Amino acid sequence: MKVPGPKGRRILEKFRKLNGGWAMPVPFVYAGGEGCYVRDIDGNRFLDFASNIAVTPLGYGHPALDEVLRHYGKSPVKLAGQDFVAREHVELLEELLKIAPGFNAAFITNSGAEAVENAIKIAMRRHGGNYGVSFENAFHGRTLGALSLTNSKIVYKAGYWTFPSQRLPFDESAPVLLEEMIRREGGRENMAFVIAEPVQGEGGYNIAPKLMMRGLRKVTQEHGIPLICDEIQSGMGRTGKWWAFEHYKIKPDIFTAAKALQVGATIAKRGMFPKEPSAISSTWGGGQLVDLAMAVATIRAIKKERLLSNCTRMGKYLVRRLGELGVLNPRGLGLMCAFDMPGKRKRDQLVERMLQNGLVTLGAGRETVRLIPPYIISEEEIDEAVSIIEKSLAEAKKEGRGGKLSHAEHAI
């Protein structure tokens, strides 16, 4: 297939000219989908192992989501969600807290970055402190507070203000270094919070060691410092549990969700939230009522169809099949899977080649290919994806050096 085709190329060229936040997107123009497959405007069909960066856990055309669209399609309403309350807002809070045992309050927003910003605010209002602590290769969002804690790519931060922060390595040394940092920087009163992704997303699909996460929880609890887990990409069941921190048998003080949830959310115990009205707020508080209803339907469908267990089973199967291909560092937690290529150029060229062969994937970090199919994926569809990966690797090897730069390489 030729991607983009003529229709898609015209639209992408207009997008590039008119879009002020320019970046080169995946070079096809969405035109619908069914199950784990997506179509572009030129009629090409792809197996989707990107899930719109983990935003479509149920794939395309899922009956539960179609029912929501039928119900709300004729009368979309967008309320100022913290000032005008709708039944859908309360239903989502109830469903969300059912899958967050030990937590009894949540704050709904529009995006993952907003969820992180509010987690920061909650921690600072509760604990005080002069700086936050995050990790090497972290990604927490592009708004200025969240961006201060992001470290996955220089381009995200160049030329922007940041508030004071410290950084730790994303490995088992982190708890010891955190303890040393607390002493060196003047004690617990100066450290506002520690924020960590149990599985780093944009930074390269790095899975936190158990000693790291458990050690961080121990040190932060001993010193009374809030621990925030960023679950925007890893949460909502993708790793085989509702939240990736559950794999470590810990509970943070605050955690964030978005992407698969369809809206943003900051979750904690009620006592963590500010008591003063309007200390945190959000104009839309979840966007359209249909967005809130889609979030509720997504949670219920994951439960009803037992998709957490499917994420676990299919994730193990996918990693095993990747291992059989002999790719570098095949890894995964549930359906948050990845492998590496020998360098960024080869990674970007492989991602583009797989797209041309009918498989949508994404890069992450410097040399990682991430594989994040919908939760409904089957063994047969994984086998199809692995065949495309194998074919694309063989073509890359045959072509050798000196190939053209990929669209992704021009963009980053």
Q: How would you portray this structure in words?
A:
This protein has about 400 residues and is an alpha/beta fold. The protein folds into two domains: about 5-50 and about 310-410, Aspartate Aminotransferase, domain 1 (Alpha-Beta Complex), CATH 3.90.1150.10; about 65-305, Aspartate Aminotransferase, domain 2 (3-Layer(aba) Sandwich), CATH 3.40.640. The chain is about 40% helix and about 15% strand. The protein contains 13 helices and 15 strands. The strands form three sheets. The protein has a seven-stranded mixed β-sheet with strand order 4-10-9-8-7-5-6, with helices on both faces. Helix 3 packs antiparallel against helix 9 (about 290-305) and helix 4 runs parallel beside helix 9. The longest helix has 21 residues, at about 380-400.
Number of β-strand runs: 15
State the domain count: 2
Helix and strand element order: HEEEHHHEHEHEHEHEEEHHEEHEEEHH
And the CATH topology of the largest domain?
Answer: Aspartate Aminotransferase, domain 2
Determine the fraction of residues in helical runs and give it as a percent range. 25-40%
Helical segment count: 13
The appropriate CATH architecture of the largest domain is: 3-Layer(aba) Sandwich
CATH 4th-level superfamily of the largest domain? Type I PLP-dependent aspartate aminotransferase-like (Major domain)
Shape: globular
Helix-strand blueprint:
Blueprint: H1 6-18, E1 30-34, E2 37-40, E3 45-48, H2 51-54, H3 63-72, H4 87-98, E4 105-109, H5 112-127, E5 131-135, H6 144-148, E6 165-168, H7 174-184, E7 191-196, H8 210-223, E8 227-230, E9 254-257, E10 264-268, H9 289-304, H10 307-325, E11 328-333, E12 336-340, H11 344-356, E13 359-360, E14 362-364, E15 368-371, H12 379-399, H13 407-411
Parallel strand pairs: 3-13, 5-6, 5-7, 7-8, 8-9
Antiparallel strand pairs: 1-2, 2-3, 4-10, 9-10, 11-12, 12-15, 14-15
